[in-house]
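Field log, afternoon session.

UNIT: design team B
ACTIVITY: writing a sequence onto a fixed backbone
BACKBONE:
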């Protein structure tokens, strides 16, 4: 922030001080300092360039190592997947029926080992952990049941990769990739174990690195499994204590790419360490930092020496040039003493550089400007006061203690009190404590930081709840201290309401109306005087001009002043932006020249001279590039100290956003209507296709099923004497399958019909429905001891037919899955979940494993065998679709052998 310049008295005191011998305050010292200002950035830039070379080289090496580490990780992953696929193929072959002979098994294992260079042997292990077949005969009968990777397979894991371990026969460092082989029911039949010798990984990865470059692979314990360049590593050298501590971060899933100390001597390496997915291992690639950076360092040294020589020569030249400036400066200093004492009669002439001659001329003209500036400042104060009252924005000024110094009419209306009652009071005197606290916090920020603040805030006003766009600008004195603030607030309630309307019409429509941000605090710079004849008068006038100019520049609307001839005498920054012209071009031009209809604009300001003011006068401003801005003008007269009319203040409100929003709403409504028509047509076509499909399923598929069932029955009746028991059993199975297929078709048709049928919400008594369904379930099996507990008075607004389908499926499932209990209890009731009403059906039957709960509502997914509990797997899918059509959710809880509970909600009615 720029601060006002010093007064004449302060200038005089400065000039009367003796010239300091401290070099930076002398001419020569200043020139040297200037040279430093020029050369130091150049030197720093050179240093920055050298450093950038180094950083670029480091970044390149880091990226190369990271890509190599990722390639190693991907290569290991691909190798592991290939071994697992081979193990799966071996497991399928070994568990075939009938099982292959022993010599075939050994040949298959031996041939598989030859396909992978690092594969030492393959073994087939039984469930006790004993090797029963192997590509290496010495491994047969070896016990591995205590190995962690074998225990992982036994506990249910599909496959496992071990950490580095010592082979039990050879004693060499190896690791294993194991895969369990299971039957169709998920029962484990055996384990295929591949033993990997990591020292042969070089043939697998085919990696070459120059110089001191290396790659490594680490297991979950941080033990080094493989290293390139290849070297014989003892078991102790593979221990985690010999690896980087940062490896543990990569093992935890973090990708590390940095320059790290590698040896106890402090040698640094550029390292990249990346996790190997799925198994918790890590791969690394690195190079010695000194080796990677050596080419760059060799280029930097000669250029550094040349830069130092150029700097020394420049300092010598600066000292010689400074001598011809000192003499004229002494004469200017003596003349400055006279100006500081208020003596403007004399003049001074100096010979020397052109800048010093111009400075002497500026001193000579300084005194002549003082009286003229005093008059201009007084007129400016009155003009800006009138401007404050002419705008619709709420404007006020506070001192550093928070007292209101100025309040315009719009602000007084917002508070609901006359301006005279507000002046001199604080925020706590005007607003309730909770409102005053927010305002005072913003004021404190401006006073403490000396910075402009802009916020949106909501407030209850005498004319209703409103939203304001508020901006607060600090006011400063000559010393740069904050002595108050200027606040400008604009009522943006209508704009906010318009934005809410657009958001409700289109979910992701972004607000396209944004307020332009005007530059603030220009007033202090434009109204600052060069010197003052009297310190107290000059300071008071300067402060008045500063905050008055702040008011006009803080406005978001274009503001102008117009004289009686229609010429523009002042304009703010917003006016410059909307016309695309500078303040110098605008001032003195005819006001009407900047509008699409000049005659209408001229009639507007002439009306102000005639009537005293004009409100919401519609015009269009033309920009330099040709585009136009629609505005509403408000204008009023302003007068001088004698009460004579000087001109017109005019404030324009940009309504472009409002017009665009109205057009956008019209366009959006048209688009929505078109989409509704298109979507309705698509849905109608889809329903016709579903009806055709249902008809095909209902008629075309049933006919062949009836034929299959009829011919099967005929064979059983007419050829029973020619068929043995196995043939009759096959035919009975065919008939059973056709019946199941017919039932599945019925369920699919029901699911389709419930999904696309039109819903009719009404008051439905679920208690009555549940009781009726329970009675229907008990009729065919009166001998079953089953108790139904049904909550009373359960009524919902829903589709009655669809709710019957829900309860029939849920209560039917409960009846079915409790059929193997001697005494069963089935309950229908209501509970609460997250504050929402939930309905449930609970039973104490077979239950289910919660690990498979996500399959319950998928069509054709069954958790029980068909010979254990009959069904097609469509019932719960039907329940889920009906509940979702009602806007609700359905879920289940249960445990094996302890029953199950199915919950559902119905959403808002």
């Amino acid at each position: 922030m720029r601060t006002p310049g010093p007064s004449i008295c302060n200038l005089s005191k400065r000039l009367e001080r003796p010239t300091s011998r401290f070099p930076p305050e002398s001419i020569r010292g200043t020139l040297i300092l200037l040279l430093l200002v020029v050369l130091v950035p150049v030197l720093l830039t050179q240093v920055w360039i050298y450093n950038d070379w180094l950083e670029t080289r480091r970044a390149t090496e880091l990226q190369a190592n990271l890509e190599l580490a990722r390639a190693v990780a991907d290569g290991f992953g691909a190798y592991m997947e290939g071994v697992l696929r081979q193990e799966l193929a071996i497991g399928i072959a070994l568990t075939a029926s009938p099982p292959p002979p022993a010599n075939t098994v050994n040949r298959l294992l031996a041939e598989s080992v030859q396909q992978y260079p690092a594969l030492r042997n393959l073994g087939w292990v039984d469930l006790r952990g004993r090797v029963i077949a192997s590509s290496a005969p010495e491994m047969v009968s070896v016990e591995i049941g205590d190995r962690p990777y074998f225990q992982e397979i036994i506990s249910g894991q599909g496959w496992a990769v071990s950490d580095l371990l010592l082979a039990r026969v050879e004693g060499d460092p190896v690791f294993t990739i194991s895969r369990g082989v299971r039957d169709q029911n998920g029962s484990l039949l055996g384990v295929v174990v591949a033993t990997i010798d990591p020292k042969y990984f070089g043939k697998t990865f085919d990696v070459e690195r120059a110089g001191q470059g290396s790659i490594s692979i680490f297991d979950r314990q941080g033990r080094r499994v493989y290293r390139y360049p290849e070297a014989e590593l003892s078991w102790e050298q593979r221990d985690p204590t010999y690896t980087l501590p940062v490896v543990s971060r990569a093992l935890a899933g973090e990708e590390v790419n940095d320059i790290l100390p590698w040896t106890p001597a402090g040698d640094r390496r550029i390292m990249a360490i990346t996790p190997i997915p799925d198994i918790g291992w890590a791969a690394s690639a690195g190079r010695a930092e000194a080796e990677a950076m050596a080419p760059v360092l060799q280029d930097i040294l000669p250029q550094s020496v040349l830069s130092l020589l150029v700097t020394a020569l420049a300092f010598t030249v600066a000292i010689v040039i400074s001598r011809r400036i000192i003499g004229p400066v002494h004469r200017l200093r003596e003349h400055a003493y006279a100006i500081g004492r208020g003596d403007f009669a004399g003049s001074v002439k100096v010979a020397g550089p052109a800048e010093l001659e111009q400075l002497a001329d500026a001193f000579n003209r300084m005194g002549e400007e003082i009286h003229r500036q005093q008059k201009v400042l007084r007129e400016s104060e009155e003009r800006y006061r009138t401007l404050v009252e002419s705008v619709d924005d709420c404007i006020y000024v506070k001192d550093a203690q928070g007292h209101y110094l100025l309040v315009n009419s719009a602000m007084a209306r917002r508070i609901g009190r006359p301006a005279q009652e507000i002046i001199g009071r604080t925020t706590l005197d005007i607003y309730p404590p909770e409102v005053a606290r927010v305002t005072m916090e913003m004021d404190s920020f401006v006073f403490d930081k000396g910075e402009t603040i802009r916020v949106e805030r909501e407030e209850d006003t005498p004319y209703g709840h409103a939203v304001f766009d508020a901006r607060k600008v600090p006011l400063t004195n000559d010393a740069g201290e904050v002595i108050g603030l200027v606040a400008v607030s604009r009522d943006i309630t209508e704009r906010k309401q318009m934005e809410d309307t657009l958001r409700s019409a289109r979910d992701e429509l972004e607000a396209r109306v944004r307020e332009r941000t005007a530059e603030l605090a220009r007033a202090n710079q434009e109204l600052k005087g060069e010197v003052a004849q009297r310190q107290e008068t000059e300071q008071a006038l300067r402060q008045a001009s500063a905050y008055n100019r702040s008011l006009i520049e803080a406005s978001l609307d274009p503001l102008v002043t117009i004289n009686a001839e229609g010429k523009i005498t002042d304009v703010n920054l917003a006016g410059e932006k909307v016309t695309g012209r500078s303040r110098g071009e605008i001032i003195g031009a005819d006001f009407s020249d900047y509008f699409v209809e000049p005659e209408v604009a001229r009639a507007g300001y002439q009306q102000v001279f005639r009537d005293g003011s004009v409100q919401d006068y519609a015009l269009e401003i033309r920009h330099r590039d040709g585009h136009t801005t629609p505005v509403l003008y408000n204008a009023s007269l302003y007068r001088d100290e004698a009460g004579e009319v000087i001109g017109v203040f005019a404030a324009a409100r940009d309504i472009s956003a409002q017009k665009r929003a109205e057009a956008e709403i019209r366009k959006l409504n048209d688009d929505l209507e078109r989409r509704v028509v298109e979507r309705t047509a698509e849905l109608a076509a889809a329903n016709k296709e579903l009806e055709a499909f249902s008809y095909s399923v209902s008629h075309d598929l049933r006919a062949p099923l009836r034929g299959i069932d009829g011919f099967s029955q005929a064979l059983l009746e007419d050829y029973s004497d020619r068929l043995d028991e196995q043939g009759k059993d096959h035919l009975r199975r065919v008939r059973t399958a056709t019946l199941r297929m017919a039932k599945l078709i019925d369920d699919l048709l029901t699911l389709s019909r419930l999904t696309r049928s039109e819903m009719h919400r009404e008051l439905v008594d679920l208690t009555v429905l549940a009781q009726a369904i329970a009675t229907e379930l008990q009729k065919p099996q009166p001998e079953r001891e089953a108790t139904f507990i049904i909550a009373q008075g359960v009524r919902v607004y829903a589709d009655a037919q669809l709710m019957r389908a829900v309860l029939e499926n849920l209560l039917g499932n409960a009846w079915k899955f409790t059929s193997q209990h001697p005494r069963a209890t089935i309950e229908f009731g209501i509970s609460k979940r997250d504050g929402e009403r939930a309905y449930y059906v609970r039973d104490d039957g077979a239950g289910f494993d919660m690990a498979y709960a996500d399959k319950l509502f998928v069509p054709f997914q069954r958790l029980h065998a068909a010979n254990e509990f009959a069904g097609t797997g469509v019932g719960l899918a039907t329940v889920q679709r009906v509940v979702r059509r009602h806007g609700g959710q359905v879920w289940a809880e249960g445990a094996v052998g302890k029953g199950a509970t199915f919950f559902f909600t119905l959403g808002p009615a």
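LOG NOTE: The domain at 759-904 is CATH 3.30.565.10 (Heat Shock Protein 90).
NEXT ACTIVITY: expression trials, pending approval
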